[in-house]
Amino acid sequence: MKLLLATNLLFLTTLGQGKGQKEANCVTGRIDFAKERTFLFNDDVPKSFVGKTLNESLYDSVVDFGNSNIRFRPEGGVSLELVKGTNATAKGIQLSTLRYVQYAKITVKMTAIAVPGVVTSFITLSETGDEIDFEIAGFNSSQVLSNVFSNGIGEFGIHGGNHKVNTPISESHIYTIDWKSDVITWLIDGKSVREHRKNGPEANSLADKQRGRPWYPTSPSLVQLSVKDGQGAKWTGGQIPWTKDMASTSINVEYLDIQCYNDLNIEVPRWPITKSNSSPIKATSTALVSSTSSAAASQPTSQLNFKGISNYPIDPSRADLSESPSSGSISNGIFNAMMIILLLYLN
């Protein structure tokens, strides 16, 4: 009887799922970036992967660009390099998860590059331009920047924060983005440095497209780590001071921890619970690029427009700007509630 009830509930709630943006398929666990579980895109022909899939049971992460700039460390984790180019721009690297999270506590232990002109980033990013980030400009070895974006809207200068660290950014620190359905908390070495509440005054927006909606990320997002050339932008510290003895510089990433939340902000092993752990994901979805991931990182995230790389442009107009619940959001809420009731019943 319980099995029949479970089958019927799954059938009914699956029919009610909304369509459109990517679904979350979060799995709680640690990613240590083992070589055999990291997929490398071909830098020259990324379009060859259009329409193909990557199996999440085989891979945890993918290098979107700069696959020659990754080093797999014998002790675990990876080194991500920025390499002096033959032209004015150094060659960076971006590493993304395959799975999408929608509310999770995301923690990375890593170093950052304390060299003027270099930007080290740890962010979440959705296909509609929702973004939460830590960004570290190398000219200031004791400061970390944070920011939050909604629907890819270029409203700058009022949603960011500056945070001091006790030891230089070149040393290992633990950075956490704790993203819940009602509040985002940024932590450094376990200490909260900032909160952004969905219903707080900090979520107010002056943007016409955002009017009537809180400035708050709500869409399934990838987690990304990157190292980039700021191309002389003032906020990054100007041009990188390359020397004969410094042809490259790098960061070390020890691990990435993800603790999934359900829609009630309860820690769960995976979410949603009906998503198969081995279901494929479109490889092209890993080519999202944040505001500061473009080749010309001329401004900090708080002053940049959301854009995609040339082969995979991101169109912010795809975002659903309606505040009223859609049929998809209503069905998701019903689905979540019914599944919680089902789990309680089966236990």
Tell me what you see in this structure:
- With 347 residues, this protein is mainly beta.
- It has two helices and 21 strands.
- The longest helix has 20 residues.
Summarize this, please?
By secondary structure, the chain is mainly beta.
Topology:
Blueprint: H1 2-15, E1 26-27, E2 29-31, E3 38-40, E4 53-55, E5 61-65, E6 70-72, E7 78-83, E8 93-97, E9 104-110, E10 118-126, E11 131-137, E12 143-149, E13 160-164, E14 173-179, E15 183-188, E16 191-197, E17 221-229, E18 248-261, E19 267-268, E20 270-271, E21 280-282, H2 327-346
Parallel strand pairs: 3-5
Antiparallel strand pairs: 1-20, 2-18, 4-21, 5-8, 6-7, 7-18, 8-17, 9-14, 9-18, 10-11, 10-17, 11-12, 12-13, 14-15, 15-16, 18-19
Helix pairs in contact: 1-2
